[in-house]
Amino acid sequence: MPSTSTAQRLAKGQKEISVSEFFEKNRQILGFDSPVKSLIMGVKEAVDNALDACEEAQMLPDITVQIEKVDQKEYRVTVEDNGPGIMPTSMPNVFGRLLYGSRFHAVRQSRGQQGIGISATIMYGQITTGKAATARSKVEGAEAAKEIDIVIDTKKNMPVILREDYIPWNEVEHGTRVSFYMNGRYVNGRQSVYEYLRQTAIVNPHARITFIDPDGKRHFFDRATDVLPPRTKEIKPHPDGIELGTLMNMAKATKERSLVKFLQNDFNRVSERVAREICSASMLPETTRPSQMTLESCKKLLDGIGQVKIMAPQVDCLSPIGGNLIRKGLKHVLDDVKPEFYAPPVTRDPKVHSGNPFLVEVGIVYGGGLPRDQTVQIYRFANRVPLLYQQGACVITKAIENTDWRRYGLEQRGGSGIPFGPAIILVHVASTKIPFTSEAKEAISSIPQIQEEIELALKACGRHLKTHLNKREQKNKTRAKFEIVQEIIPLMAEKTAGILGKPVPDLRGTITKIMDVVWIDSSVTFEKGRHKVDVTIYNYTPKQQRFSIHTIVPNGCLDEKRCSLAPSEVKDGEKVSWELPRITSTEIYKLSYELSGLDAEAYQDVDLYVSGINPVYVMGADPLPGDWDVEGLNYTESEAAEPEPDPEEAEEEPDYDESGEDLNDDQ
Amino acid sequence: MPSTSTAQRLAKGQKEISVSEFFEKNRQILGFDSPVKSLIMGVKEAVDNALDACEEAQMLPDITVQIEKVDQKEYRVTVEDNGPGIMPTSMPNVFGRLLYGSRFHAVRQSRGQQGIGISATIMYGQITTGKAATARSKVEGAEAAKEIDIVIDTKKNMPVILREDYIPWNEVEHGTRVSFYMNGRYVNGRQSVYEYLRQTAIVNPHARITFIDPDGKRHFFDRATDVLPPRTKEIKPHPDGIELGTLMNMAKATKERSLVKFLQNDFNRVSERVAREICSASMLPETTRPSQMTLESCKKLLDGIGQVKIMAPQVDCLSPIGGNLIRKGLKHVLDDVKPEFYAPPVTRDPKVHSGNPFLVEVGIVYGGGLPRDQTVQIYRFANRVPLLYQQGACVITKAIENTDWRRYGLEQRGGSGIPFGPAIILVHVASTKIPFTSEAKEAISSIPQIQEEIELALKACGRHLKTHLNKREQKNKTRAKFEIVQEIIPLMAEKTAGILGKPVPDLRGTITKIMDVVWIDSSVTFEKGRHKVDVTIYNYTPKQQRFSIHTIVPNGCLDEKRCSLAPSEVKDGEKVSWELPRITSTEIYKLSYELSGLDAEAYQDVDLYVSGINPVYVMGADPLPGDWDVEGLNYTESEAAEPEPDPEEAEEEPDYDESGEDLNDDQ
After folding, report:
1. pTM of the model
2. What is the ipTM score, two decimals?
3. Structural domain of residue B81, as residue ranges?
4. Of the candidates A462, A487, A516, which is a domain's last residue?
5. Looking at chain A, which residue has its C-alpha nearest residue B444?
6. pLDDT reading at A187 higher than 70
7. I need a surface site. Which of A360, B70, B259, B318 has the fewest CB within 10 A?
8. What's the pLDDT at B315?
9. Do A271 and A361 have their domain in common?
């Protein structure tokens, strides 16, 4: 066959592929690669949209998900929300066209960003069942809802409306309901619709979610708070890491007529001063016309941007879950396993990847009933959406694997890979643009900046874990020593005395000499809406001791009248100090206080601090941190108590070693 | 803010997103997520296209890849091939438009399938450097090459030609050269352009690849064979697992006017008899008009297809690498570590996923200088393309993790996860459509049918490994026993004889009674273009032995004149048998033979077989397989020698337990 004809034959075969045709043939890219996962994907896309719409309109979401079994393979999924609704004219494109949406161009945190999800779901349903989807929506003030039966013409990527009606929908003021048929398989377990909704509820405590499973059983995830997360603000692109191509497009499109104004008005965090600095660092006149900038001058500008220090983006374009909610969410999930320790969650400051702000949050839970001989469990979230699949492809997993957990008390062969131990590691990445590895949005790409931030957060949280484990070990050792001393010494004394025919001596002084420790124990009991805290202080030192003890209580809850000793100070309604009386050697002193107005589980761990005594002699309380006056003691506490500061770990902004990337990837 | 306005505001923001705009913002999905990887991706897309085009035209590929450093971040990549060329009119769309191509609709194995790769690469280059790409192509018989400078209008996903010329390109008869600038980083190591090209050469031994690195150094991967892999045949969709939607589209589009003809002519492997069976199983008249089939009758048809046994697809739409080339490729790579064992590669028969034929090949290498205290190395290939990234996301990795390697002699905590040990596992998946997890084509989705096939192939290959390790252990044990016996018994005898004042007895009979084994050792030496093989047979049994010994030599290489004993038979020029003379107890017999005309490394391992003796008494040779007459002895050998058939493992087609999928995924 002469080669010209190959070229001609190839040319003849070449044609355009419509985006929906592409995804029809590659639906695994959208996450529709197994029946179980497909059903979860379908629910997820519809719920993501509902949550986004409610957040957009600042409404408390009330979402109902129903899955009905049609036959052996086919299910019907219905998702209804109380959101602002969709304009009747927009409905065909929203539900029937891929790559169509409102959030793609916005620099703001949201769940949907691609304009693919719900229409891809409808397309998948149509491919596997041959049936149309039905969408109904009512906007506030409208008299009726619009309802459409819709399929997608995949060759053209255009909606085809099979039926449209206006129908009364008096039960609701506004909202959207979409239902579609799809092949799938309903299961229970770690990767299931139920689990997806449960994890969604954890990180969206303002949402109320009702789930009706195929057996008709109702599951109800009530909202834990009526406070909406603040609506994330849309910002301009941040100049850090911006791509040359993007910069050139922006320069071409701007309305500004000088470079300095362009920088100042089209970018996030560029003040006039910074804009001038950039111009000077780029060696470009401030009056340069952006629209006339050449490739060369754009490259200079990019270099200039790289030389000027620009503030990190505002946090308000992002919606972190926050330490309290992370802790609460985890506690809620782990009710049954009763972990021994919740490391204070770490929320990092916003950073930027390719001009997109992002931040990382990490929480670690340890011990209790968590399985000891397995790899740790990883909970991954991106913009408050749980990621159940493709753990191995995710930068979160890579960052965990790339961290030497042996330093933080977990078992890990060779210091890399997923560690073993009774722990859960939760990581949330929030960004105005999450760089997912595929349209299925199941895993985050290994962007070096993001991996670095996750690793720093993991290390910070890991240090809390290590501190706890060190304390536990120290306490266990001291307790063991104490028990041995208390048992053996009297026996030895008795025996010796018997042999020598002398009376058994008083050994308390000897024991205290050996122990040389002030031992502090605390316990909390809850009864009739009140927490009672008992603190017991044993002076096992050979000297008398006089010191102060401090703790933090939930604001305004301390019942000062019911303290066994009046506090010497109560600061900001939460920082309580007691000046203890003199405690002589071998004496035991008991202190108690009461809290009122709290839920039972709202106060379980007592963190105690001491001052006026060398803290190396104290077991069961930490030295009072230097910033007792400062907010967020919980966090700084462990840093102050850090037993072995680790010189190898630069906590803040190490120069990122890019040469590591080929080694770190895919290990 | 009233909600209507939210709906209106959202509606106003909604717009179409062009596919190139989408990938511009989500270039990590295309694999452009780090500078190192981007450079590899760019080379890969261009090389994939070159190999595909040459294969299409049945030409032996001659490909030159050059990478030049422009500045700190910027590189220029040039890839030139001797393929059939691209028609001048097609060039703009091929290089300047995403989702445009000739291979998307074909049911045939090829590297590119998406119509995204090269244009996405050019787009990435344009975004990061602002520079146009240059493409030049000449088709056979043309007087000049067409050359264009091209950029992509990402808002419209359309090519923009900045320059076009016809220029003489007399050095070549036909071919294509594309060069583009991109931000990247050139590195060496496990994930590098060099490694990608090296692995490409391994699985494409018919290609000649020249690589000029940024330092100007030339690396040359010569072709190992002049035989082109047969051009894969385009086939019709196979009915197995076909989607309802696809079926409905096919029924609507067919030219056939009866169901039975439609089935027979539009599908792979459906004969008239099978077509009739399907009609009857579907309870649809054979004369049904396909174009008028309803949703209900299409569903019935799908059910009917599921009930009828349909032949697996022909292998000729696929291009397996083949056991020999896998072994050769691996040997080539592992020259320096000298592994102790290459398990005979396993190639499974073609199977079907969603109507797409596929097959799986697996090879395992063990021991030698491979690192012992690390996880095994995994080499992944899809349609002869090495996959260097996203190992954790790939069904190949999942299948490996899901296999209990402890049964096959590798260390693996809890029987799941990537095993540890001195081994390399190579897996190649060939398919008319590889279901990649994303457009970056770095990992294969967890399609249950594919995972199952990989696991079966891994187990089959794992059994070879286990057989080898068992033999080795048995041999080591026997050798240890032998050494002890040979050392201790004479010492004991001497001592005892001394005490009793008697002469030291002849112990050979005693030793053979204890050992009771025929020990066969072999060694190969290479000198002056000849292989000399020495086989030593020790009769450590108390009886005389008479048996035959057999081996396979490369065809026609045996120099019969130089055998120490004339063979009793030489079958097919390669199967050689010797009838050995009687060997008395404690006697040592030596056999030698020579081979000529082979490269040094072409003959290193001697596989010996015995007959006429109970094989349980023989160390160092296997029982002669029952199918000594059948080709592929290498493979059946280990199965015959299988020491412990494993009842828990169904080798062929276990009913796939779908309920496993939620557990297996992402572990």
Report:
1. 0.76
2. 0.73
3. 19-221
4. A462
5. A28
6. yes
7. B70
8. 80
9. no
